[in-house]
Amino acid sequence: MHRKDPLPRVLYIDLSSKRFWVEDRRELFEEYLGGAGVAINLLREEVPRGADPLSPENAIVLAVGPFNGLYPMASKTVAAFKSPLTGNLGESHAGGRSGVAIRLAGYGAIVIRGASDMPVWISIYGDKVYFRDARALWGMRSAHTAGRIIREVEGGYGFRTIMRIGRAGERLVRYACVDVDTFRHFGRLGLGAVFGSKRLKALVVVGRGSIPVVDKVAYRKVYDEIYEEIVGTPATKKYHELGTAQNVIPLNELGALPTRNLRQAKFEHAEELSGERLAERYLGRRVSCAHCPVACIHLAALREPYEHEPYFYKTTFVSYDYEPIYSLGTMLGIRSPEGLLRILDVVEIFALDAMSTGVALAWMTEAFERGLIGEKETMGVKPRWGDYEEYLKAIELIVEQPNEFYRALAMGTAYAAKVYGGEEFALTYGGNEMPGYHTGPTAHLGFMVGARHSHLDGAGYSYDQKTLGKELTAEEMVEHLLREERWRQVLTSLVICLFARGIYKPQLVVKAFKPLGEERSEDELMNLGKRIHLLKLRYKLDEGFNISTLKFPKRIFETPTPHGNLSPELLEEALKLYWSRITEELSQQE
């Protein structure tokens, strides 16, 4: 690492005392690179074991890595925190300008401690940190409005990132997210509620610095090689043309598209919600994260008449991706693209995690059908598959929580099902709501054992699709998930967007380090990925994660996958094998 590289600088901010200071943590960055590796270490340092996720004891760690601001598609920021949704490890990744802004502001990580006595937003301009009064923004219905106001009063246009919460975070909905630069998010596991518990409305970071490079000629050569791989080969073509929404039709044809709370894995109206249809009829713009040439962010232009002015229209840009289409579309039986876009817009306005919200609403609909809840609990809302108007009402009530039922639903699907019944069709893993893949056994095993209970932990869904027609063994699934998740720890420590995982392979990563003055071997990187992975699992176990209580949702065994009906015995065998491997590896470390 170049001695003038600001990456080892960690900015500490204490909201309780309104103080800040900087520490040099060079040893931490030299050992763990940055991003996920540094974040899990800082989280372990900062948060006492057993801390309430919504107490001042919880901390927010934002970390970037050595490739941010230097190489294309190194565009993400890693957030680590204790999750109020699961009570355990919270980790979420966001793009936009966040990674480049933090890096060029002169920091490798930002740690936010304590809680403010009144609503504030924090503005970081290089070495200067300001605590702004956010009382006028607190309680606004739309996170968009709060963002516009902050944009108008803060400087640094073109060099800044703005992260902010909406009403969901203020109201401590356990799956509230943090909106980043309008169309990106720290989505999963409830970072928005942690912001809300700290009365932190927003964080602005302005980065105008630069990053030293040891060998500029070699750097330019490696940079060009990576850039050409991104724009000149099919590696990222899918993400630019249709985005992840391209997944809708192939998954539907496979019988892997969760529909109506996974009662089916095919949706008869999938074509209406497909990436092709949305691009054809609604696509208004494509935009990119900072320092990324792909432009995978697809914005639909939703044109609606004003209520009392039928010949005057407003146009709203709504971001869409595969996961929100699944969770707020097919899972709810929504067949209308306009209805889907209206739901997506409202979820964005309140700053809710789209996946958790959709799965919660799907559980609510089935519980209502089965008579586990009635109109007394739903306050007159009649959730019906495909009725987006009813779902719009329910979303507002989840945020405002006017009764016990909506307070329970704001705690997450697992909690609500425990109180009201229907756990057998509550699609959650370790407390986190299911991603949009019913591809086979490896996907569901990955949701259960992944450090974040995310499809992006170990990409089991991809392995399922590559092994269609083959009878998988527990050993094969476990081996794939461990190998893949551990390499991804390296990528998310650099910090590389996982859409570039097919480009940033071990050999290229080693090559990209050299112009920065660092020598890293493939073996060293692989070992580091394993150590970071085990650190995360150790944190989870220390926080009470109990392997023996893990249960797969009964529903996944009732609906066939492309691999046929899932075998409970196979998944249980794989689960035990996975944790026996982890237990052995952890004991070897001690």
Give the N-to-C terminal Cα separation. Answer: 29 Å
Helix content: 40-55%
Structural class of the helices, strands and pairings?
Answer: alpha+beta
Mean pLDDT: 96
Q: What CATH architecture of the largest domain do you see?
A: 4-Layer Sandwich
Unreliable segments (pLDDT under 50, ≥5 consecutive)? none
Shape: globular
Radius of gyration of CA atoms, rounded to a whole number: 23 Å
Tally of DSSP helical segments: 25
Number of strands: 17
Can you tag this structure with a few keywords?
alpha+beta, Aldehyde Ferredoxin Oxidoreductase Protein, subunit A, domain 3, 6-stranded mixed beta sheet
Describe this protein's structure.
This protein is of the alpha+beta class and about 600 residues long. It has 3 domains: about 10-205, Aldehyde ferredoxin oxidoreductase, N-terminal domain (Aldehyde Ferredoxin Oxidoreductase,  A, domain 1), CATH 3.60.9; about 235-430, Aldehyde Ferredoxin Oxidoreductase Protein, subunit A, domain 2, CATH 1.10.569.10; about 435-590, Aldehyde Ferredoxin Oxidoreductase Protein, subunit A, domain 3 (Orthogonal Bundle). Helices cover about 40% and strands about 15% of the residues. The protein contains 25 helices and 17 strands. A 6-stranded mixed β-sheet has the order 2-1-6-3-4-5. A 6-stranded mixed β-sheet has the order 8-7-12-9-10-11. The mean pLDDT is about 95.
